[in-house]
Amino acid sequence: MNHTQFLTYGLLKLLLKETINKGLKDEDQLLSSYHIKTVVFWAIQKNKQHDWCPQHFLAGFWMCFKLLLEWVYDGTCPNFFIPQNNLFLTNIHSAAQTNLFKQLYGMYEEGIECLLQRHSFRTYLTGNLLNPRLRVCSDENYLILKAEFDVKLFHEIHRNDAIHLSGLHHCYDALNTVAQLIQSSLTKYQMIVLQKCTSSILQSTAFMLQNLYSNTDSNKQVYYADKICCSMLKLATKFGFVSDTLFIAMYYYKTSRFSKALSVIKKTKVKLAQRYVIKDLNVDKENYTKAVGGQPSSKKMKKTVALHIRLECGICYINEIVPEQQSSKPSSSSLYVSPFTLLHMLEFLSSRHVDTMRAQTALDELQVLVHHDQGQLVFYSDISWEILGICQQIAGNLQAALYSYQQSLRQDPHNGIRTATRQRIQDMRSYFLTTKRHVLGDPGDLSANHREPPGPVLIPTVTHTRKIPAKMANKFNSN
Predict the structure, then answer these.
(1) pLDDT (tens digit, 9 = 90+) per residue, 177-199?
(2) Which residues pair with 309 in a beta bridge?
(3) Contacts (Cβ under 8 Å, ≥6 apart) of 315
(4) Rounded-to-integer distance, Cα 90 and Cα 398, Å
(5) How far apart are CA 371 and CA 381, in angstroms?
(6) Which long-range contacts (CB under 8 A, 24 or more apart) does 270-276 make?
(7) What is the pLDDT of residue 214?
(8) Element (H, E) at 72
């Protein structure tokens, strides 16, 4: 430590003695001189570009004070020599942590001038603080809440996770790049971005591989490809958002393992229902802080973030939305879907093969979500109305489906799917003319009872994927 750094430590220690711990018994004091020394060491380590000289003495002090404030807020004080050891673990938590943070935050709101309220500081600092040529970088108006910061951080990470992969060779190159970057020196924020990108690469690779081997005649190749795909999708959930488990549900549905898809959907439903989950820009700050406060950002991302699902337009995830992906492709490389909309759609589609009552319940829940959401869960309303229409059409409720498609056309074209929507409407009108049926009443009246059309799905827009060979079912069910 140079002389200025040593003076900074002395000033912080004086502040601790005369202000923070003033009037407290030794056993009631939460912060010690060792905590202060640790703060100074880490500030020096993390801010190597800061000029620790007498002219920047107060700026260095303020930098250390803000670091201390951040640590008290998070409840973590990493030991300088053994960083995994938290020096706050035994005494700074719960109510004690809250009270200490309020005390320090009150001083923070006063700015560097808080030192002038202490007589021992005032004598030495008044002249310097009144010097018009002296500028101390301490003029923040507020300290952004950690929950608000995390919301913006995860949105920024998601925005930069737009890696377009046009083939398996690109996926291979991307994974090699990830392996190289892991060995390099990355900041903690760069590492979080890399984790999310890795998750997306694994998801794209898995579906590309499944699409490649879905039409092969070799059951052995299908089996081993499926094992690899499942492993990649499960690994991806360890790095990505909590909503990324829906990729596993889509994969199980696409490969006709409907019960397993519903099992994943059930677990995902429970996770997304937690009050601390980040839904677009909305988060319950109090519950979020209680649930993950002080945890690493990577764990927060895996446990709390439920942002829109990005589906590459060049990859077939489930056949039911292929027309929408093709419609969106000229203007965008991806289709963006609310995880809550996709959750209900997958539950409806999978339940049709297992439990028709559950399928109807899922469809009802999807309808309520799309009709009554106020921008809390449905982030992109054009595709949400489209998905509702697709599910209603499959269920045979053609009038409701037509109304949903028309509503999709009235929304902002975030995903560029209007070509597919118009085609679906045209197909339905052609069907009505062919069968000499008419849509009775107002298309927006969903309360009217309509007879179920005879036979299976009336206007099949796609064909289902190749099913897993029957003799391999037992092996798959064990995975």
Answers:
(1) 999 998 888 887 889 999 999 99
(2) 337
(3) 204, 207, 208, 211
(4) 63
(5) 10
(6) 271/242, 271/245, 272/242, 272/243, 272/306, 272/339, 272/340, 272/343, 274/304, 276/304
(7) 83
(8) helix 57-74
